[in-house]
Amino acid sequence: MQQLSQPLIAIVDDSAVVRTFTAFLLANYDFEVVFDAEDGQECIDKMHQVEQLPDIVILDIEMPVMDGFQAAAILKTNWPEVKIIAFSNMNDSSSKEKILAAGAEAFVTKESDITEKLIDIINKIWQQNQIRIES
C-alpha cells in the first residue's frame, strides 16, 4: 500500500494562542494547516470558501457565536468525509459523549500531553482514511 500525502488540517479555537501553538506543533510534524477559525461559524464560512477542504478539523467545544457541538453537526451534514478531532478543556463524560454523537471521531483534552496524543490521533485517523480510499 502506498503512503499518500499528509492530511490537510483546519484549527478552530477561540484562543489565538491555542491556534498559533497548534499550527506550530503541526508544522513540526509536516502537517499543513489550510485555515484556522476563531469559532464554529467562521469555520463553516471558510469551508464554503476554501479551494481545498481540510481532511481533519481540530475543533474546540467552548466558543462564542457557534460552539463545537453545533459546528460538528454542520460539518458532518455538509462534509461527511471530513474527520473531526474535538480539542477542549471540557473533560466531563457528558461533553465527550455529546461531541462524539455530533460527529467527532476523537476527543483530546487540552490538559493532557497534547503533542504526542494529538499527533498520534491525527496519524491514526489519516491511516484509517487511506485504507478506506485504497480498498
From TrEMBL:
The keyword Heme does not apply. The modification 4-aspartylphosphate is found at D60. InterPro entries: Bact_response_regulator, CheY-like_superfamily, NreC/VraR/RcsB-like_REC, Sig_transdc_resp-reg_receiver. SUPFAM superfamilies: CheY-like. Pfam families: Response_reg. Residues 8-125 form the Response regulatory domain. Keywords: Phosphoprotein, Two-component regulatory system. CDD domains: REC_NarL-like. SMART domains: REC. PROSITE patterns: RESPONSE_REGULATORY. This is Response regulator transcription factor. It comes from Dyadobacter subterraneus. The lineage of its organism: Bacteria, Pseudomonadati, Bacteroidota, Cytophagia, Cytophagales.
